[in-house]
Structure formats: structure tokens, C-alpha cells
Amino acid sequence: MNGPWELPTRAVIEDRVYEIRTDYRDILELMRWLDGTADPTLDQGERWYLAMRLFYPDFASMPRQDWQQATDFLAGFLRAGRPDSGPAAPRLMDWQQDAPLIAAGIQAVSGRDVRALPYLHWWSFLSCFDAIGDGTFATVVAIRDKLRRGKKLEGWELDFYRTHRPLVDLRAAEDPEARAEKRRLLARLGA
Description:
Elements: E1 10-13, E2 16-19, H1 24-34, H2 44-55, H3 67-78, H4 99-110, H5 122-130, H6 136-149, H7 155-163, H8 165-168, H9 176-189
Antiparallel strand pairs: 1-2
Helix pairs in contact: 1-2
């Protein structure tokens, strides 16, 4: 990894240089595959393999002996070069479901709509994300956290939750069997 004031645009593994995809949209798509929301039927090894193919444009030509270091580089890149914080905390947000709230928070922080930018490095995107303070996204995450921990919501939080429940409740991942059934029904309907 580069120093904290540089944005990595390549991975150097055993003196070999590999191009990487660094735009935040590419990384968010890669993370959908890693966390299993893109295809819950894949096991963890298959998810990492697909993530590597998405992250490294030339992954097909990468020697197998570089795969472990390339995987470590990818994991460090996703953390924006920060140390590993250990086991993952319970999920309080979803990059896809919360996208409009996250975009609004980042726009408030950066003064621009990042969705309109042709390119924004993942680390720059995360810097803006980390700076999101007050706002709807912060409120939603705080209510989710209280609900997860069984804490009592304050009156205004309860009112917010009642009026914005679809926004606050995290959608469950679609069951693979339900998805297959939906595909089968759509095929029968000619859709």
C-alpha cells in the first residue's frame, strides 16, 4: 500500500505491477459479490474469486502464487489502508439500500453529488462517507443500532421509525429458492 496521503492505483506484488479498479462504483459492486448479496448461492471462496476478477482487470493472467498477496492487497484496499479492526460488527447499513441517504450525506460533506462525477477513488469516497455527521443517514443508522441492541427509542425516534419504517428496516437477503421460484414464474408468464 502507498502512504496515507497517496491514493493507490496499482498493486505491486513480487515486483509485478497490476492495474486495479479504484472507482467507488466498481468497489461497491465488488462488495455486493463479496458479501453475498449479488448471488447468495456462492460460497466464500467463489465470492473472493469473483471479487478478485472484478478488482484486477488482468486477473486471468496473474500467476497463482500471487493470489494470496493480491487478496491481502484487495482486503487492505477495501479498508482504505486502515488496520484490520477484527471481527465484523453487526450490519447496520446496506450500501445498496442506503445509497440515496449515503449520497445525500456525502453531498452535504463534499458539496457535490458524487454520483455525477465520472470518477472518484474509493478512498476519497470513504473519506467523505466517514465525515457524514448529522442527517437522515445518521438518524437511520442510530435507530437501527438501538433496535438491534433492544434499547428504547426516544419519542421523536419512535415517530421517525413509524413514518419511515421501510427506510429504517434493513431488507433481508433474498432466499435463493425464492429467487429461483420467481424466475420460474416469470418465465411461465413470458416476462
